[in-house]
Amino acid sequence: MSMSWADVRFMLERMRGLVRRGLASLRTRGLGPTWARVRRQFARRVLPASAPLHVPAAAPFAPFAVPANDAPRASIVIPVYNQAAYTLACLRALAEYPPAATCEILVVDDGSSDETGEWMPQIAGLRYHRRPANGGFIAACNDGAALANGAHLVFLNNDTVPQPGWLDALLDTFGAHPDAGLVGAQLIYPDGRLQEAGGVVFDDGSAWNYGRFDSPDDPRYASLRDADYCSGAAVAVPTPLFRELGGFDTRYAPAYYEDTDLAFAVRARGLRVLYQPASRVVHLEGITSGTDTASGTKAYQVRNRGVFAEKWREALARQPRAGTVPTAGSVVRPRRQILVVDAETPRPLHDSASLRLVNLMRMLVEDGAHVVFLPADLHHAGDDTARLRRHGIEAWHAPFAARASAWLREHGHRFDVVMLSRHYVAAEFLPLVRRFAPQAKVVFDTVDLHFLRERRGAELAGDAGLERAAERTRDRELTLIRQADATLVVSPVERDMLAGLLPDACVEVVANLHEVADSGLPFGQRHDLVFVGGFRHPPNVDAVRWFGGEVFPLIRARQPGIRFHCIGMAPPAEVLALQSQPGIIVHGHVAELEPYMAGARIALAPLRFGAGVKGKVNLSMAHGQPVVATSCAIEGMHLTDGHDVLVADDAAGFAEAVLRLYADAALWQRLADNGRENIARHFSMDAARDTVRRVFLH
């Protein structure tokens, strides 16, 4: 595809932004860290390979054992009629990769005449039930459900090969989404192509296997999503709900449309039908009933469509018109669709801005919106991309999104709101959004006011060049605020500053978003000091250098046993060099922060410049960990010295505050309790909910 003027304009703005940020990085970070940043920006990213499909090796029958439990969380009901070899492969797959959840497996034999009756009783742990006569799929499933002991029923066709982790992914969905009434798996053909990613039902009762023959890894099919129905080849439903609904409706006997009918009945109860792509099941479609709708059992598919259409006439009036082709936008209507664009996929375990963004998107999903995330770098971010998808966020990446302009040309019409994060991302994307999504409300998320942080850093360094760069950033940010329909800042201080500069702009505060965590160990069992912050952020480098060089020696002189734990990604050489001092440990990035939040006695925020709300302060307070900070670090955070934080701005005062808090259990507990209350009042998701709804949902 040839490049359009929109592509050229986008690339020119991106190049200008890269040059600007590169020069600023050289002045503030030096050549080494800047070069590392450039290499990271342009590194070739390879898509993570999908796990190869597991297929049990073909072998003559020999007895084996399947998972079994007397008090199962799930009852897996497998209806069978002949096809013993396929049933055997299904059971072997369940045996070779048993789930973490407790389960029982029930094979309901609907009058087989092959080896089924000989083999099944020899499989240890299997509950085998033989019906007296052939009654069809619905009768066999309902019989199995009546015999089940599990809290959840999982219906599984015998012509399937469940992939490792499939059952746990289905069941965990109910825990993460208490309003779920039915959850279906992603169905895959044996050759790896997608068979179904949740079904679509049209207004005449006909149905569509969404995603058929596409890649299972395509972002359109890779996130948790509401579906009209999920194929009964692999679905889970709470046992009490299934029984309350009367099981599969026998008017569809012997088979077909019973799964679609069940999904509509679940929704009629006010519960959700969810497609869970993390649960992958290979399905050999048509093995038992064939594919010819003109004869055999498959003929009931045609008849039952009419039965279904009559039963659900009112509900079908709200479904898409027959003959239309489902798209990524249409399958989530009528939900409000919101596009979020940031420089890269957020990494909530690495930095507070990422945590804020993920929690903001989670809030929107919880309030009924469909959220789509597009990283400007178009990279797949591994576990971080997967995390968004588990939250029900449609996360895109290359090669499925090859160019920003082409992607927005295809998808822009979907969106009611587009949020652009950071001024350099907004500068690149705003013209594309106005062109390809003119109907969308544009929200500019500053993350923090970059010019304010840059100006303060320049003043601290006494660098006139940095001051001029900060003014250029100021002009760009103010221009974007004028052009956007609404702007988000993270603190009242920034909102009030913008009110003076741009009194007509719509500016709202959405601060850091945290969940109050467990309070960790008590005072007497905690030891040492901790700092958490990514070192690609210049204020954090300066803070640790100042604390390690000027403050910590004063502390160690009076308390030689205290250690300082420094945590954060990409510590530069000057931070690593601090380890030459006794008691300083530079950990870099750690996979799990919890031990340091729960076990360190005091958190530190020794920032001498910066802007916005400091996630390191919020994070510690949410865990009941008191904080000693500078005035800059607590700006706009509703904190009071001596009540919920200790504040000092010079080295001697900062050291004294740390030593006093380290020795005073009563003061420590008071600050811990009041800090947690501050988080609940000002920085929780509930505290931001009204503002988020006003900006995005009204």
Strand content: 15-25%
State the helix count.
24
Largest sheet: 10 strands, mixed
Radius of gyration: 29 Å
Which geometry do the CA atoms define? globular
Highlighted features:
698 residues, alpha/beta
Concise account of the structure shown:
The protein is of the alpha/beta class and 698 residues long.
Give an overview of the whole structure.
- The protein is of the alpha/beta class.
- Helix content is 40%, strand content 17%.
- The chain has 24 helices and 25 strands.
- The protein starts with a helix and ends with a helix.
- The model is unreliable at 289-296 (pLDDT under 50).
Secondary structure: elements and pairs:
Layout: H1 5-29, H2 31-42, E1 74-80, H3 84-96, E2 103-109, H4 116-119, E3 127-130, H5 137-147, E4 152-156, E5 160-162, H6 166-176, E6 180-188, E7 194-196, E8 199-201, E9 207-209, E10 225-226, E11 234-238, H7 239-244, H8 258-268, E12 272-283, H9 300-311, H10 313-316, E13 337-342, H11 352-366, E14 370-375, H12 383-390, E15 394-395, H13 404-411, E16 417-421, H14 423-436, E17 441-445, H15 450-461, H16 464-483, E18 486-489, H17 492-501, E19 507-509, E20 529-532, H18 538-558, E21 564-567, H19 573-576, E22 584-588, H20 594-599, E23 602-605, H21 615-622, E24 627-629, E25 646-647, H22 651-663, H23 665-683, H24 685-696
Parallel strand pairs: 1-2, 1-4, 2-3, 6-12, 13-14, 13-16, 14-15, 16-17, 17-18, 18-19, 20-21, 20-23, 21-22, 23-24, 24-25
Antiparallel strand pairs: 4-11, 5-12, 6-7, 6-11, 8-9, 10-12
